[in-house]
Amino acid sequence: MDSAWNDRQPIYRQLRDRGVHMILDGVLKEGDPLPSVRNVAAEFRVNPLTVLKAYQQLVDEQLVEKKRGLGMFVKAGARDLLLRGERQKFLAEEWPRVAATIQRLGLTPKELMKAAATRRSAAKTAKGER
Predict the structure, then answer these.
(1) Which phi-psi region, left, alpha or beta, contains residue 49 (left: φ > 0; alpha: ψ -120 to 50)?
(2) What predicted TM-score, i.e. pTM, was given to this entire model?
(3) Which CATH code of 3.10.450.50, 3.40.30.10, 1.10.10.10, 1.20.950.20 fits the domain covering 11-76?
């Protein structure tokens, strides 16, 4: 993980967002343990209480569960829950800007589909797939 912090958001929130991205990207799967608070604090040179606050947000959002004496683990269904929320957020907040840009540039559905296919092909090549 990149340890550059942005000043627009508290560090605990940025740590929470990194955890969310790790779940969405499949780095952390259902049942996987979260890295220990101590390890994360040491890796990013932040106070352990900051990491704990980020993890507590994940617990409060029903994405992670605490197992006494064992640590924190990704809950079953966490990725699906995140995907639903992130899709709604994208459609409400980002899609209107994207759609306006598409319209302003006069892009056709055919051009967009071609660009999407090219991107998918490049991503598969980068991963070594066919």
Answers:
(1) alpha
(2) 0.74
(3) 1.10.10.10
